[in-house]
Amino acid sequence: MTTQALLHVLSRCTDSARTAEFNTWYNDVHIPDVLELDEFKSVRRYQLGLSNIDDMPQYLAVFEVETDDVEATREVMLTHIRGKAATGSVTRHDLFDGASLSWYVQIFNSATVD
After folding, report:
1. Which positions ≥6 away from 60 have C-beta within 8 Å?
2. Is the pLDDT of residue 90 over 70?
3. Does residue 55 lie in a domain region?
């Protein structure tokens, strides 16, 4: 059975003077690399507005994923990204600090009210 899941990626740019370069890489290189995988349907990125947590990562990417097996999909994604790096199609940028990857599986879906 296909499950709706979300992959939340919290990240930082390691050099505030190069934030535009980081965001261009993330949006134009990294996201298309991940979206090459059939299970990954869409992504939205956010920049931190407010937080009550000190040193909270400044960026959140939320990938919508359809999968029969979250663990297997995670492994496919990591293998895909490592393969890109090994062939010279680099998917990791020196400015990227991936602070956390968390997978969430849908447990409830409410009806939409028109």
Report:
1. 8, 9, 10, 11, 45, 46, 48
2. no
3. yes
